[in-house]
Every structure is written in structure tokens, then in C-alpha cells.
Amino acid sequence: MSTTTAPARLLSPEELEAALRAIGAERYHNLHPFHRALHDGKLNKAQVQAWALNRYYYQACIPAKDATLLARLPTTELRREWRRRLEDHDGTSLKLAALPAG
Length: 102
Fold this sequence. Notes:
The chain is mainly alpha-helical. Helix content is 64%, strand content 0%.
């Protein structure tokens, strides 16, 4: 059973953005202790290797996630927007991907 309660009202777009930015300021990945240790050179080789493997897997899954989402979008406009993200990661037959796979 969930203990979260629904907000009393929907947030305006500006309020939603401000709320998300506040969460990001407190919890963004660069503030995580592991991230700090990585960038401060405090991890051993095995820890860095594990991070690299995890990062590769995460990045490799993004195009599949985007394609799944794209297939479920109800409008042409939304599909076109998400198609750009998919092409950024996977490229097209006519050009190389802007972002390296994985």
C-alpha cells in the first residue's frame, strides 16, 4: 500500500519546472558519493571497471527504451521528436550516430 498522497492541485508548468530543478539541485548524480569518489580519483581499478560496465550497459539500452516509447506515442509530432533522440544514439543509414553506442 502506498503512503504517498496526491497533491491538492496540479502544478503549473512553471511550478513543476521549479520543483524538478529543486530536486535536481539536491539529488543530481554529480552529488552522489560514488560520483564524487570517481572524479576525485579515490576508486580502485575494479570499482572503475564496474562503473564503466554499468555505464556502457545503461547507454546501450537507451535506444531500445526510446524505440519502445516511440512506438507507443499517440501523435506524429511526439513521434518525430523522440525519433530524433533515437537517431542521435543509433544514427541513420546515411550518417553516423552523433553519440557513440554505449
